[in-house]
Structures are given as structure tokens and as C-alpha cells.
């Protein structure tokens, strides 16, 4: 779902979001983490990745 929101943001804003919080600020997401607490990040290429707390 988050990947689809990244694509919608890119289409509407004509640029990739700088980070996951940009999607929340713009109203594309309500939460910036997974329900299980894992963090979500967006790469410079616009790919959504899930990171577990404490991982490097």
C-alpha cells in the first residue's frame, strides 16, 4: 500500500517524496510505521523498505 502512495505522490507532485514523513504531511498516509512496529523508509529511487527496530 505504501508503494502505491509513493507512486501517487510522484505523479501528483512531479517528484519522489523526500522521506516517509513527506507522505504523512501531504495526506497520503496516516501512519509512518507498520502495525507491528517495524519502521518504513523510502530509498532515493522511491522504493519502500521495511526495517525492523535494532537492525542495521
Model description:
It is a single chain. This protein starts with a helix and ends in a 5-residue tail after the last strand. The protein has helices at residues 2-13, 20-25; strands spanning 39-42, 48-51. By secondary structure, it is of the alpha+beta class. The relative contact order is 0.21. The model has no long low-confidence stretch (mean pLDDT 91). A two-stranded antiparallel ribbon has the order 1-2. The radius of gyration is 11 Å and the shape is globular. It is built from 2 helices and 2 strands; from the N terminus they run H-H-E-E. 32% of the residues lie in helices and 14% in strands.
Give the secondary structure arrangement, pairings included.
Blueprint: H1 2-13, H2 20-25, E1 39-42, E2 48-51
Antiparallel strand pairs: 1-2
Instruction: Round the mean pLDDT to the nearest integer and report it.
Output: 91
Distance between the termini: 24 Å
Question: What would you report as the Rg, rounded to the nearest angstrom?
Answer: 11 Å
Structural class: alpha+beta
- What's the overall geometry? globular
Characterize the main sheet.
2 strands, antiparallel
Keywords:
56 residues; alpha+beta; globular
Amino acid at each position: 500500500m505504501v508503494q502505491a502512495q509513493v507512486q501517487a505522490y510522484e505523479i501528483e507532485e512531479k517528484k519522489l517524496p523526500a522521506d516517509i514523513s513527506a507522505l504523512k504531511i501531504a495526506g497520503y498516509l496516516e501512519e509512518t510505521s507498520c502495525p507491528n512496529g517495524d519502521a518504513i523508509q523510502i530509498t532515493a529511487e522511491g522504493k519502500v523498505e521495511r526495517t525492523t527496530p535494532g537492525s542495521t
